[in-house]
Amino acid sequence: MTPPRNSNAARDIANVLHPYTDARAHQKNGPLVITRGEGVRVFDEQGNAYIETVAGLWCASLGFDNERLVQAALKQMRQLPFYHAFTGRSHEPAIDLAEMLIERAPVPMSKVFFCNSGSEANDTAVKMIWYFNNAIGRPEKKKIIARIKGYHGVTVASASLTGLPYNHKLFDLPIQGILHAGTPHYYHCALPGESEDQFTTRLANELEEMIVREGPETVAAFFAEPIMGAGGVIVPPAGYFEKIQAVLRRHDVLFVADEVICGFGRTGSYWGSQTFNMQPDILTCAKALSSSFLPISAVMVNDRVFQGLADGSAGLGTFGHGYTYSGHPVPAAVAVETLKIYDEMDLVGHVRKVGPVMQEGLRRRFSDHPLVGEIRGVGMIGAVEFVSNKETRANFDPAVKIGPRLVKIAEGHGLIMRALPGDGIAFSPPLIITAEEVNDMLDRFGRALDDLTVQLRRESIT
Ligand code: PMP
Question: What cofactors does the UniProt entry give for this protein (predicted)?
């Protein structure tokens, strides 16, 4: 149906080029225009309410309204609406926020560098690692290993770290010197008869073989999300990161934790690094840092990395990197207020209470469903994966587009959902969600799944 002239939908179709959107199909389908938010819900132009089951893009941890964050932004805009951090300039919001992040870090960290997005934070980490190795006299140690199905962003270096085909092949990526190790997804990647322990040992051995093959003197760093998010909500088996880190230590390879999704309570600890016993040298975070009310991200480095960077200033020249809006005072002030709110409401304690309602609810209600292969997740992040055959664990023919179909059906049941690569559907609601709202979300999801089941039978797909 053609939207009315001058409607938001018509003006969107005429003017907006959307990220991650089929541009041709959008000309026909048009946008879903969201006009306001309240708690875990957003509302469209017709006034329909939707529970945001992925907190937008895994990010709106405090939901879609918060007066304290509004006031923090206003106050800072009146006081000092902009100043930068180049050539030693500074301001209180950035100083406060850096101090708060260092205090809360999962391992001792030394300094914080601010950026505006997760992609920028990861690109910055890559450049810091290259500069660090130049500074300490090992310029050949530059290769970086990430993982197949990892997601680290879309800028040129971070998209190269991302391990998903559609982020690479259409853009002639990855750039040189970026490699991808195996995915810790036991359900799909384990060999027949392999225990979880044998599986993680094999992954660590394969990583070590890759480092040795490349030459340890050429391998600088390993990037990992605690739980792989956009690649499928893949939770590593117990012991995985311990074994991986032992390999990294043996070959003096820096470990970077990408906490862009897992940071700030998502997994039921303040950091995903704590849930999975990770001791990163560098940590990147974004999204929930400001509850996404304004864009801001951060890179934390430990003292060893900082000392190398500082040596670089003397030996090589100043670290020639930074963004106009690195540590912008308004998002920084909002992030400071966000972290205060997390402490005051004991957000991590809340996730520990309500996370299990979601995890147990998903498993109890949907494990036995004929379309469901695996249900996975920790804390307030999870996924349901659909299979065409529970025995072989095969997914559906991609042409069936099972995830996007379910997303569309779920919209009619008052849910905004997100399909994942590999026939999954994600659950990562605002962390403030109550047990009651979790049950409402799962009831609605159940009804959408029933509709999908009927639709697939009608089309003789199942
Ligand atoms: N890292 C991870 C783990 C992410 O999930 C994302 C975004 N989903 C990014 C990096 C990139 O963040 P941004 O979209 O803010 O650039």
Answer: pyridoxal 5'-phosphate
Residue 201, exposed/middle/buried by CB under 10 A (0-12, 13-18, 19+)?
middle
pLDDT tens for each residue of 304-315: 999 999 999 888
Q: Tens digits of per-residue pLDDT, 47-68?
A: 999 999 999 999 999 999 999 9
C-alpha 451 – ligand 1 centre gap (Å) = 32
Residues contacting residue 317 through CB under 8 Å, at least 6 positions apart: none
Find where tokens 């999801």 sit: 445
Pairing of strands 49-52, 415-416: parallel
Q: Which residues pair with 385 in a beta bridge?
A: 374, 424
Domains of the chain: 32-65+347-458 (3.90.1150.10), 68-345 (3.40.640.10)
Q: Structure pTM? A: 0.98
Neighbours of 87 (CB within 10 A): 7
> Residue 42 to residues 52, 67, 265, 358, 435: CA-CA distances in angstroms?
7, 16, 22, 20, 19
- The closest-lying atom of ligand 1 relative to the alpha carbon of residue 155 is 16
The 3-state DSSP class for residue 7 equals coil
Is the beta carbon of 273 within 6 A of some atom in ligand 1? no
298 pocket-lining for ligand 1 (C-beta < 6 Å): no
Contact 184 CB / ligand 1 (< 6 Å): no
Of 116, 76, 119, the residue nearest 326 (C-alpha): 116
Is the ipTM reported for this complex over the cut 0.95? yes
CB 426 within 8 A of CB 233: yes
